[in-house]
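Reopening this ticket.

The earlier resolution said the output was attached, but the attachment link was broken on my side. Pasting everything inline this time so it's all in one place.
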Amino acid sequence: MATALALGRRGLGRVWPNPAVGCVIVDKAGIVAGRGWTQPGGRPHAETEALLRAGARAKDGTAYVTLEPCSHVGETAPCAEALIAAGISRVVAALEDPDGRVSGRGFDILRQAGIKVEEGLDEKIARFDQAGFLSRIERGRPMIALKTATSLDGRIATKEGNSKWITGPEARKHGHLLRATHDAILVGVGTALADNPRLDCRIAGFEGSSPIRIVLDTRLKLAEHSDLDLVARANEQETWVFTASKNPNSMSKMTAAGVRVFPTPVMGDGRLDVASVSEIIASEGVTRLLIEGGATVATSFIERSLVDRIHSFRGPQIIGGDGLAAIGPLGLVQVANGPRFIRQGLQSIDDDCAEFYVTIE
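Inline output:
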């Protein structure tokens, strides 16, 4: 199962709206006969790939799979039926699929065919890996991770807006790897205008893993900046803009550039309603969303309790109180009322420090 889980992670950021599943087929002699994981775009499924590699050795063997085999007919035949046809005698699954089209039916089909089914092996790990898929199905929004790169005193830029570079090249590579494991990456229009980011994955071998680029742009300012990469390369790397603007000229400019525009409601303070943004993103199939800036956007998601994970990179310098803070005002009176997270990882990357936190559920 540990191998199946590791295989499944290969699909993170590349298979949405499907889950990133891994599967290992062990023959009747106890020897691994086939391995598979969900392929880019979500097809073929992990079980199909593993069975293809196992061939005739799958008969009377065991399938270790990280999520319940599907039971519904989609673009491909149900994986449960494929396992039956291959002569598998036992299926060990980490997690039941909460999708209403499956939700235990895959297990039922297998048992009715005389296959022994065991559930729950390494379920906790599988739930962590499948957090995006589970969140979209169960909560109607993606799993949302916030990535910050700050000084020791929690600043993301100087008072003049300079931020290059707070962390070193190796830490920035880790940030690009994060992009590769998320379906979409989100920034505010302030970051887009100030930094002209590409928001792609620039690591050898991962060029094809760049996420969808999403910008929160209340007044559709991007329409007047066609030279920015987010607009100029929208036909190469998919770009979405969420806005409250109803200006037809601005909308036409964006559409002509290849940008998808999503009309979005605003909150009482005039900012875009990030809860609605999250729901719309999920309705488009996105399961894993990475927020990269800026402070206003990060604050909006934190205020609404929408941040599930934090990837914090810290450089070894001080910027000072006149610098731009990573998180804006939250209006807290008592420290105890602030959002709290549990640290799950700590790593030194050259002179920088990387920390990983998850929300307290």
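Reporter confirms the inline version is readable. The radius of gyration is 22 Å. The mean pLDDT is 94.
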